[in-house]
């Protein structure tokens, strides 16, 4: 035996004996998660409540099978924080919580496996996990022992959190656990959960199969949208076996409407995000199952090409995302982030499809198929979205033309509600667009307004033939009675037309709103004493005269900036906006701004803006948690609507408790 062969044989013997593990054997993670992981995790629905237990985990595994979720692709049943006791045992092993898991973790994993599913667990790359009751011992410096224990239980997925990391370098902490998992010989999906703090997308491709890109999601629209927007920017870093993770789904937890949950699910799907259900499926509605089991949407998420959909356009919160698919089709999401309805469109060439006589457009939520000559468009309600699969098709003429309808009132700035004073008139425009190649016929538009209001068409509302690639618009004068009460009122358009493929006339509805303002404010006033028109906030609601408390209305403490307490003001959390009707009556707005003492953190970073309708009249620039309170003065002369906006400073929206202390307006 020559020396080289002898050395190879000796090394092989040592590896087999388990005394030597070659660095090469460690360097690569196993080939897993070639499409984004799909499954369940309890955290978003239970946190550490008592209903997180063995029964729940088994119940979810059962439902995965009985309700068809397993067949739809959901595979992992994962448990989060609070599964273990606060102390290790005499051998230094983690101990399952005896009340939640009286039969241990292996028994639960076995049950999950018996259903043909996989089982996942959680710990932290720190000395303790994250939960507020103190956590259980984390994996830092126990990587090998904990990984072995998990493997012995049959764990298939590990979520590895970031709390109590003692300042140890993130790459080191996560690589150590990757190596420990690999050394067990079990194939375990490795999910990094360091909230995007150390830009894992730049270094974790060979470490984990997915990495969180943001802080924790909560079950509300603003949280979901701000996380989605951060994750969109990272599209280039995702691919088979290494995904951006914008956190687990909230679909079904009750804090958003089904329409909003459809947008949430569509966004996660087109972004090739992991689809980990975060609701207790034993308690959800049929609509929740319908969303989670939309197989055509899931197919976009799970497409084997593994590209994350990219934003090709964003016009003031109207986002167009495109995801190329392995068979040459393009998935497209038209997503309306705003509080007002919008009609959005994109063209086949913008999506990256080559020239063709026509395209087939499959609406993945409405489950309809139409054809288009070029444009793909949809009329979207506030917070709505439309998701399509678009393909080149020689037989496009087999499908009816794509027709989009819309109604819009005159607005002061993009995304605003149309405002109309009692006794005054506002202009609305309705439109019907035929994006196909075949004509539609007998097109009739009508506009319905509340009782006592009037709507008069000032151009024709009927069109006998609307050829392909043409639009038809009608202008309406909507008059509000002198005695109208203040409030938001429905203005609904409806349309009928004949399509070459339908026997009966097609009807379409389009709902919008008009706002009748109350009296404009007068005098020197605290803004927090006025009623806002609309507000939105990054965490929980905007608070009046207290700081933001993150959850329910009224849960914030006194507004406090660098030790000084203020009796009046607004408590917001980036990203936030609050709109007031000022009716052209006010001049000066003043405030003392700063991050509230309650949550000052090195990550606190926001900027404050004041807008008079569509004019930016004050921009504070960056405000950090250590900055002294600043005074703000803005000229809001002439503003019908005065808008207060807080933006996240660009480092994620954690700890962004932005106070508007002593906020006054002169009218
Ligand atoms: C962190 C994670 C969450 C969850 C909790 C558990 O906040 O980001 O996803 O795991 O810890 O305590």
UniProtKB/TrEMBL annotation:
Ranges for domain Glycosyl hydrolase family 98 putative carbohydrate-binding module come to 521-667
Q: Which Gene Ontology BP annotations are present?
A: carbohydrate catabolic process
Instruction: Spell out the SUPFAM superfamilies in the cross-references.
Output: (Trans)glycosidases, Galactose-binding domain-like, Glycosyl hydrolase domain
Indicate the transmembrane segments per the record: none
Q: Which domain of life is it from?
A: Bacteria
Q: What Gene Ontology molecular function terms does this protein carry?
A: alpha-galactosidase activity
Q: Which reactions appear under catalytic activity for this entry?
A: Hydrolysis of terminal, non-reducing alpha-D-galactose residues in alpha-D-galactosides, including galactose oligosaccharides, galactomannans and galactolipids
The enzyme class is hydrolase
Q: Which UniProt keywords apply?
A: Disulfide bond, Glycosidase, Hydrolase, Signal
EC number(s) reported in the record? 3.2.1.22
Position of the signal peptide: 1-27
In this chain, the stretch annotated as Disordered covers 538-558
Q: Which PANTHER family match?
A: ALPHA-GALACTOSIDASE MEL1, ALPHA-GALACTOSIDASE/ALPHA-N-ACETYLGALACTOSAMINIDASE
Q: Which family does it belong to?
A: Belongs to the glycosyl hydrolase 27 family.
Q: What is this protein called?
A: Alpha-galactosidase
